[in-house]
Amino acid sequence: MALSPATKQKVAVVLEVTKTILHWGFMPTVLYLGFKKGADPGLPPLTLMNLLWL
After folding, report:
1. Residue 10 binned pLDDT confidence (cut-offs 50, 70, 90)
2. pLDDT tens-digit readout, 16-39
3. How high is the pLDDT of residue 35?
4. Buried b vs exposed e over 34-54: b needs ≥16 C-beta within 10 Å?
């Protein structure tokens, strides 16, 4: 099954947008989930200042 040039272009655009979203959204997502979970017992609490200090 061959794809038309228009379909190939649409797939390329969708892949490029997906790549950009993953590229710019990965670290904020990881940081959000880490702050949401909180620190392990016995460790100091997580704050934005602690993140910037390290």
Report:
1. very high
2. 999 999 999 999 999 889 888 888
3. 86
4. eeeeeeeeeeeebeeeeeeee
The residue whose two tokens read 């794809």 is: 3
Sequence-separated (6 or more) residues with CB below 8 Å from residue 39: 45, 46
Q: How far apart are CA 36 and CA 21, in angstroms?
A: 21
DSSP one-letter code for 43: S
CA–CA separation, 13 vs 2, rounded Å? 18
Q: Which of 40, 41, 42, 32 is nearest to 51 (CA)?
A: 32
Apex 37 CA angle, 31 and 41, nearest 5: 120
